[in-house]
Amino acid sequence: MKAPRRPIHAVATWVKRQPPKVKAFLAVVSAMAALVILRLVVEDHDNLFVAAETVHAVGISVLIYKLIKEKTCAGLSLKTQELTAMFLAVRLYCSFVMEYDIHTLLDSATLLTTLWVIYMIRFNLKSSYMADKDNFPIYYVVIPCAVLSLAIHPSTAHNIVNRISWAFCVYLEAVSVLPQLRVMQNTKIVEPFTAHYVFALGVARFLSCAHWVLQVLDTRGRLLTALGYGLWTSMVLLSEIVQTFILADFCYYYVKSVFGGNLVLRLPSGVV
Questions:
Q1: How many C-beta neighbours within 10 Å does residue 61 have?
Q2: What are phi and psi of 266, to 5 degrees?
Q3: Structure pTM?
Q4: Cα separations in angstroms, 187 against 76, 77, 192, 259
Q5: Which of 90, 99, 105 is nearest to 172 (CA)?
Q6: Which of 2, 57, 164, 207 lies 20 to 30 Å from 110, alpha-carbon distance?
Q7: What would the pLDDT profile of 88-97 be if each residue is shown by its tens digit?
Q8: 13 to each of 5, 9, 66, 253, how far by Cα in Å?
Q9: What distances in angstroms separate CA 138 from CA 56, 77, 135, 213, 229, one per listed residue?
């Protein structure tokens, strides 16, 4: 007699059998349901952005624990860390010259820890760095983001350099995880600490996206006009949505693996 399957396994199996259009529909419905729950549970939606930064910091902390405890950086993308440091540095500059608040302090802490991770990968743990797997060209994202920021940026009263810098860090953040996904795509096997880190990034991206969407709903669209006019407001929301969905597929397999009791995440072909 077969043992009854866990509900999560039954649901995962059912979802896996569905065609791509049904999976996409289910993903959209799940995201909308999560937004509704967050809107009802969280009173001050500004806290969602703080929560996103906090979860990102937790993800970095997991990396630090991995580097210190296991003394290896295998499976980590140095390029993603460098892109993260780049957009955080630009965002910090914008925070100092445009609006200094708690986000500035959170970004400062995250930038310092990210720089430490970069140092460890480049020098102390260089022998375990998988350079051949970390083969995503950085200029594939940096140059398009720079060009896009020149074309589409805020139309506020701030200095033009600051407005372009703000747009650049928004666009770069949306795609900064792509090199890490390429590493996982090349290896197909993701060890626990790296999986925890990428999942934390996925949660942080979703909370940040939820923050923007709920802020727009709370202000009945006034937030969009405060950001300026033209295509910029749409690009901000699009960037948040893009960076969320980039990691959605990985997060699905991560949750499935965790509930299945698997410590090592094995990705099927075509994922990320």
A1: 14
A2: -105, 120
A3: 0.81
A4: 11, 12, 14, 22
A5: 90
A6: 164
A7: 999 999 888 8
A8: 10, 6, 32, 12
A9: 21, 11, 9, 29, 30
